[in-house]
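User: Sequence in, structure out. Go.
Assistant: Echoing your sequence, followed by the C-alpha cells.
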Amino acid sequence: MPPAPPKPPTNYRAIRGITDRNLLIGFFVILFVVGLGLIAFFYGGGGVLGGLACIVVALGLVGLIALLLAGLGKLTEWLDK
C-alpha cells in the first residue's frame, strides 16, 4: 500500500478570518430577524421603527469606534516606519 500524500499546510489566519466573518453575519441576522421580529410581535410596526432606529444608532457608534481603532493602528504602523 502506497504512503498517503502529504497534507497541504493549513492557513489558520484565513480560517479564523472566515469564522469571524461568519459569526458577525450570524449575529446581525439574529439581531435583525429575531430581535425585530419579537418587537413586531409584541409592539407592532411603531415598535419596529423605534427598535430599528436604536439599532442603527448603536451600529453607527460601533462603526465610529472601529474606524477610530483602525486609524490608530494605521497611525502606529506609520510612526514605526
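User: And one key feature?
Assistant: Residues 12-80 form one domain.
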